[in-house]
Please model this.
Amino acid sequence: MACPYSKLFKSYGILPNNQLLYDLAFTHPSCNSESDTKHVDYERLEFLGDSVVGMVVSDLCYRHHPEMEEGGLTQIKNQMINSASEARRCKELGLDEYIRLGGSFASEVKRDGDHELSKAERALYENVFEAFVGALFLDQGYEFTRFFLCRLYEDEIKNARIELDPKSALQQLLQSEAAVTITYKLLNKEGPAQDSIFTCAVYFDGIELGRGDGKNKKAAEMAAAKNALEKLSVPQGE
Model:
């Protein structure tokens, strides 16, 4: 039986030792309910891959920006590792072509071209990217995986500029009003635990300035702050 990932393996010079790892990396948890299985999905690999990506990107930031202190390095790392960035990389690598979804979840995802990603798609592609890296790490080892990630991130990290994150930029913009507090409030949380989407709003003196969505509360607060800056006509970098 032909390997379903032959094209993918050839593209990135992968000589697989354990194809099952890649099967898991591309399997959404919704498939478990249809197969009456448990943990036969990408979640554990996603956990591992998230850490591997973070380690390699942190190392690259440290090596290529010796002039920066911790705050600047963290800003560049956050530019490289976020939901939108990892979802984009998933599609650019062609990983979305191999994803398996259960019927209960498939209707939420539209894999039909270059449309703007929905919340469900963005979370899915981010998770699959991290799971694939986790599979690569276990199957090919750290050096291969590091080389693979360096090709994805190194040039961007070398050329990265420091920009205030949206929450810091909003705080700086409004800091002259020291007596008035900027607050964030969680408005909603929807979806299953593994793919939850949080919605937060940001308030200044009790007035809502913006709101946004994210995979966790922190990401949603960042999105809300960015939305507020956009409404206040303050340009933000991608």
About this structure: The radius of gyration is 20 Å. The chain has a mean pLDDT of 88. Residues 43-64 form the longest helix (22 residues). Residues 6-158 form a domain with the Ribonuclease iii, N-terminal Endonuclease Domain; Chain A fold (CATH 1.10.1520.10).
